[in-house]
Amino acid sequence: MININRPEIKGSCMLQSAVTDDVFLALSSATRRQILQHLATGPATVSELAAPFDMKLPSFVQHLSVLERSRLVTSTKQGRVRTYEIAPEPLQAAEDWLSGQRRVWESRFDRFDDYVNQLKAKESDS
Q1: How far apart are CA 70 and CA 25, in angstroms?
Q2: Using CB atoms within 10 A of its CB, is residue 35 exposed (0-12), middle (13-18) or buried (19+)?
Q3: Would 48 disulfide with which of 44, 68, 90, 97, CB 3.0-4.6 Å?
Q4: Rounded to whole angstroms, how far apart are CA atoms 6 and 90?
Q5: Reading across the β-sheet that carries 81-86, which strands appear in turn?
């Protein structure tokens, strides 16, 4: 069993938690999820990313800023053109958290299933 109170593990857990919080915050917006879907096909400029959305550019750029702060995307600027690219590593933190939750619930359902089967067995014995 891992002792999460050890300073190096506690710091790592807090960092992981902060990354996961940022990722879920970024993913809470349909616009940002659509941007990520677009970027999953390859890098794109701000104007390419903004084209499908009916929104003012400053508002759209705020969505890009949230994605960049959460480290889900990176950007490079060449002249006046900024190009964004997806950075999938933080998604792994969210996936790890979800997988952990799934394991907890699957374990609970397995124990519940065992309990129900024991009750059925007792009922059929009597």
Answers
A1: 8
A2: buried
A3: 44
A4: 24
A5: 44-45, 81-86, 73-78
Rounded to the nearest 5°, which phi and psi values hold at 72? -80, -20
Residues 15-32, buried b or exposed e (16+ Cβ, 10 A)? eeeebbebbeebbeeebb
pLDDT per residue as tens, the chain (126 positions)? 445 455 555 556 666 677 788 899 999 999 999 999 999 999 999 999 999 999 999 999 999 999 999 999 999 999 999 999 999 888 888 888 899 999 999 999 999 999 999 999 999 887
- If you count them, how many residues does the chain have? 126
Please give the backbone phi and psi of residue 80, each rounded to the nearest 5 degrees, phi first: -100, 5
pTM recorded for the entire structure: 0.73
Residue 51 DSSP label? T
**42: closest CA among 83, 91, 89?**
83
**Alpha-helix residue ranges (DSSP H) falling in the chain:** 7-27, 30-39, 46-50, 57-69, 89-125
